[in-house]
Amino acid sequence: MAAPQITELEKGQSIGTRRISLSRADLVAYAAASGDHNPIHWNERFAQEVGLDGVIAHGMLTMGAASDIVSEWAGDPGAILDYQTRFTKPVPVADADSGSPSEPTAELEVSGKVGKLDEEAGTVRIDLTVELVEGSPAPRCWPRRRLSSASDVRRGGVHPPPGPAVPIIA
Amino acid sequence: MSISTEREGHTYEAAQPYQVSREAIREFAASVKARSSAHTDPEAAVALGHADLVAPPTFAVLVAQRAEAAVVSDPAAGIDFSRVVHAEERFTHHAPIAAGETLTGQTTLERIRVMGGGAMVTTVTEITNQDGEAKSTVTSSLLVRADDEEAA
Predict the structure, then answer these.
(1) How deeply is A146 buried, as exposed, middle or buried, from its count of CB atoms within 10 A (0-12, 13-18, 19+)?
(2) Contact indicator for A59, A125 with CB cutoff of 8 Å
(3) Chain A residues touching residue B62 (CB < 8 angstroms)
(4) Is the peptide bond before A160 cis (omega within 30 degrees of 0)?
């Protein structure tokens, strides 16, 4: 996919959406890959003892998964210069009622739009919103809600700064 | 244990160096469901101008959290880890992280804002590679919830 050109972008323009399903097995896989073994992400009893309704996803798993639409749009994951998130609500991931723990019990919808263009710096800020999809495909229902209100991604030219022949991603 | 602001501004000893392997990048990319072939196929990464497999944008958290552990385990800071909620995270990348690098993270306890019985703790971790090149600045804010029983 060709890298987007800053001169062809407009504030408010969508860069795309992606639905990402999560299972208990995904949380265990993220714990292993990240080294974050906090039991609130895999043990129901422990999660409830510390005041949660149940097991929740790692905030950093949501943040990590949400950046993918930006990497894809930019054409290079290394084009993301700055990425910040405020974690506003937990993402509950229930144990599947039966069968494999790899069965998804939560689904996120990530959407991104152009938040700000800086032609001089050659950067674009992408504002991401992550929402929990209501009742799908989980056996339980949760209200659709805004999980992340201030996530933005500033992406920029490939490192090191591209020469004039290289398309400037923003 | 109660929160103390006496460590504000303190820079902790750097964590043990972290060697970035292709396997770690592949495993982390799969765990965050990242789809770019630059995380799995060295040729695809090189075609984009990277030296080797490029790490996903939040991979630096592996190095940052190892360094931040010094703050959470510091008795003088008085943070009760069982009451900690991750509130905010920010990565400022100076250059993308690639397989083959050895990274060192060093954390400074930037700010402790006491709010009632709880607090917001902000740390800043500077990540450099084996050549001393700045790779990433990771800012993390943890909300330490008030202990209701103690407050009562």
Answers:
(1) exposed
(2) no
(3) 34-35
(4) yes
Contact A35 B62 (CB under 8 A): yes
Residues of A in contact with B48 (CB under 8 A): 75-76, 78, 158
Q: Which chain A residue shows the shortest CA-CA distance from B88?
A: A86
Q: Do A84 and B89 touch (CB under 8 A)?
A: yes
Residue B115 falls inside a structural domain: yes
For CA atoms B110, B113, B114, B116, the dihedral sign is negative
Q: What digits encode the pLDDT tens for the residues A111-129? A: 999 999 988 888 999 999 9
Q: What is the domain-level CATH number for residue B79?
A: 3.10.129.10
Tell me which chain B residue has its CA closest to the CA of residue A19. Answer: B33
Question: pLDDT (tens digit, 9 = 90+) per residue, B49-97?
Answer: 999 999 999 999 999 999 999 999 999 998 887 788 889 999 999 999 9
Number of domains comprising chain A? 1
State which residues form the domain around B100: 56-151
CA closest to B36 among chain A residues: A72
Residue of A22, A34, A170, A4 whose CA lies nearest to A95: A22
Read off the CATH number of the domain in which A12 is found. 3.10.129.10
Residue A12's domain spans which residues?
Answer: 6-22+58-156
Structural domain count of chain B: 1
- Evaluate whether residue A165 is within a structural domain: no
- CB–CB contact B54 A32 (8 Å): no
Lowest mean pLDDT among A45-59, A125-139, B30-44: A125-139
CA distance A91 to chain B (A): 13
